């Protein structure tokens, strides 16, 4: 597959891709839908819908339990999906892939494990100033439980993490958790530098890749990251399933998260022996259809090629930034350019409240997100109540961006008039 | 003389029927918000905030000559307009009238999304607060 840097013009035909997504062809309030809320969730291609439908039509059965034919076919498909996910992020072993309900649960699993086994009073946890609440609150809970301290890597006015002084910040830190791409501003964070700095002190790193895996090639071995979390539903897959990757040695060190079926080897009232990885962390009947849907989504993405996706999205992002900069009164929040940004554009227009803008865009069939994007500390940093966020996926085209710009102009006329 | 609670709601419904497209309706809502008397600084304080996820609404009420009068504001123009309609509908009536009144204009004019998506704003909480003020004034007037 060609590297994204060598691709000069997008190799994908977006109009062909759009045909794979049935929902894109519906109308909203009489307008053709413009869906620009992809950082919240992406739409699903026919291939994913069909894979899940097929699962329920032909092999639905509980996994790892039955001796019967269907259970064996379901187990094979479910474990083949795990292998596919491991390959997708280049994990060394497929037992380093833990199925969760999503990124949030994955981070909670790690934070709870650290609270129970590793954190002690007086220790610290380091997060960044551009985190989603789901990468702040689990660590706050862990810190409260252990009388540890939560520390924060600061962000500058351009939305870039300030790494000066990072080494000092790392003192006393037992784990660093931050996002690859900020969900509220869209900037790609200096992942390698932070991991390197943490590792030089022997500190493990948890990477929230919820806004990264759909836009960039992610290789956990190359990054040498200790934990990585992402959600299926932002990667064109079904909702309700996500992934925690953990290095084998770290997953062995953490205690089980929840108790129940599947995660045990033997149970007596005196002592329960836990199952091996990855099952130790997978209590209860899992989301089989979800795993199979996610595998189909990964197939879909890999058929297009993440390098091609990245190139096409970067080209559209560049067009979008140019177009939006031309809208009178519009100011971007977070100043990353098309190259160091993935998926997300946050903005405000004049003194229009983001809610008002979102409402008026909605009435024109344009779906964007408004508000604080579950990242209140980021909004506080800029002293704003929230932003309007347009976020891109591979099926968005220039027409979507033109409709957005026209929609913003119309809204501004109404709301500033 | 104030219109009845039903009468004011019916008037809004009739006005909206006359407006053909969504931008005219928004203009109308925003305009109502702009015409609402400014909220006195003594009322626009933190303890009168009904905080939603995205918008902030301030609501206060006073009891004069047996009737409830509401004042309100919001930091978003559209919500402010909707809030102004509530203020207009419920102000100048007895607590009993406020408590007994059905609220149907919101749904009739197609603004129900503001009431159902309770994550996005505090309008449900605001309607509850309107009724709570009335309830408080009612029990106060019964005691005296």
DSSP strand tally of chain B: 3
Global geometry of chain B: globular
What fraction, in percent, of the residue positions of chain A are helical? 25-40%
Could you list the spans of chain A in which at least 5 consecutive residues all have pLDDT below 50?
A: 1-8
**Percent of residues in β-strands of chain B:** 5-15%
Structural class label of chain B: alpha+beta
Helices and strands of chain A: which structural class?
alpha/beta
Give the fraction of residues assigned to helices of chain B.
40-55%
The radius of gyration over CA of chain A amounts to 22 Å
Report on this model:
The complex is a heterodimer of chains A (417) and B (144). The radius of gyration of chain A is 22 Å and the shape is globular. In chain A, α8 (220-223) links the parallel β8 (205-208) and β9. In chain A, α4 runs parallel beside α5 (137-146). Chain A has a 7-stranded mixed sheet with strand order 4-10-9-8-7-5-6, sandwiched between helices. A 4-stranded antiparallel sheet of chain A has the order 13-14-17-16, covered by helices on one side. In chain A, strands 1-2 form a two-stranded antiparallel ribbon. Chain A is 38% helix and 16% strand. With 417 residues, chain A is of the alpha/beta class. Chain B is α+β, with helices and mostly antiparallel strands. Chain B contains 7 helices and 3 strands; from the N terminus they run ααβββααααα. Chain B has a 3-stranded antiparallel sheet with strand order 1-2-3. The model of chain B has no long low-confidence stretch (mean pLDDT 87). The A-B interface holds A 29, 352-356, 359-360, 363, 370-372, 385-386, 410, 414-415, 417 and B 22-23, 26-27, 30, 53-56, 75-79, 120-121.
């Amino acid at each position: 597959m060609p590297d994204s840097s060598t691709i000069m013009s997008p190799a994908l035909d977006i109009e062909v891709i759009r045909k794979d997504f049935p929902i894109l062809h519906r109308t909203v309030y009489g307008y053709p839908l413009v869906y620009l809320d992809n950082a919240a969730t992406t739409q699903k291609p026919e291939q994913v819908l069909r894979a899940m439908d097929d699962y329920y039509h032909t092999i639905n059965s509980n996994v790892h339990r039955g001796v019967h034919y269907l259970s064996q076919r379901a187990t094979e498909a479910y474990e083949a999906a795990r292998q596919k996910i491991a390959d997708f992020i280049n994990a060394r072993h497929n037992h380093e892939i833990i199925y969760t309900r999503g990124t949030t649960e994955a981070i909670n699993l790690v934070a709870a494990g650290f609270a129970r086994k590793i954190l002690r009073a007086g220790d610290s946890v380091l997060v960044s100033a551009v985190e989603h609440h789901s990468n702040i609150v689990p660590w706050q809970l862990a810190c409260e439980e252990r009388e540890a301290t939560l520390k924060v890597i600061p962000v500058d006015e351009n939305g870039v993490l300030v790494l000066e002084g990072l080494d000092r910040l790392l003192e006393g830190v037992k784990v660093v958790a931050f996002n690859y791409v900020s969900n509220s501003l869209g900037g790609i964070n200096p992942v390698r530098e932070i991991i390197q700095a943490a590792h030089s002190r022997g500190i493990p790193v948890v990477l929230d890749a919820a806004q990264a895996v759909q836009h960039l090639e992610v290789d956990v071995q190359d990054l040498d990251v200790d934990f990585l979390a992402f959600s299926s539903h932002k990667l064109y897959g079904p909702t309700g399933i996500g992934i925690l990757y953990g290095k084998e040695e770290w997953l062995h060190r953490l205690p089980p998260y929840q108790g129940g079926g599947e995660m045990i080897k033997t149970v007596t009232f005196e002592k329960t022996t836990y199952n091996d990885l990855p099952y130790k962390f997978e209590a209860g009947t899992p989301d089989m259809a979800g795993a199979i849907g996610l595998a189909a989504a990964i197939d879909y993405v890999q058929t297009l090629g993440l390098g091609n996706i990245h190139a096409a999205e970067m080209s559209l992002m560049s067009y979008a930034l140019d177009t939006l900069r031309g809208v009178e009164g519009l100011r971007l929040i977070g100043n990353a350019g098309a190259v160091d940004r993935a998926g997300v554009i946050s903005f405000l227009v004049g003194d229009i409240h983001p809610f008002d803008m979102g409402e008026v865009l909605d009435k024109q069939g344009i779906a964007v997100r408004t508000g604080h994007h579950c990242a209140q500390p980021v909004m506080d940093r800029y002293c704003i109540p929230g932003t309007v966020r347009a976020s891109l996926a591979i099926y968005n085209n220039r027409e979507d961006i033109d409709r957005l710009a026209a929609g913003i102009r119309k809204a501004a006329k109404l709301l500033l008039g | 003389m104030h219109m009845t609670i039903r009468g004011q709601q019916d008037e809004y419904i009739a006005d909206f029927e006359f407006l053909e497209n969504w931008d005219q309706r928004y203009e109308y809502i925003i305009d109502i918000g702009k015409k609402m008397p400014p909220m006195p600084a003594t009322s626009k304080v933190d303890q009168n905030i009904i905080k939603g996820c995205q918008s902030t609404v301030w609501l206060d009420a006073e009891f004069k000559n047996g009737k409830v009068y509401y004042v309100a504001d919001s930091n978003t123009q559209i919500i402010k307009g909707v809030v102004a309609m509530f203020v207009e509908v419920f102000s100048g009536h007895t607590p009993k009238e406020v408590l007994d009144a059905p609220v149907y204009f919101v749904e009739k004019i197609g603004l129900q999304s503001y009431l159902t998506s309770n994550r996005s704003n505090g309008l449900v909480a605001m309607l509850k607060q309107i009724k709570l003020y009335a309830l408080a004034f009612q029990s106060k007037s019964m005691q005296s």
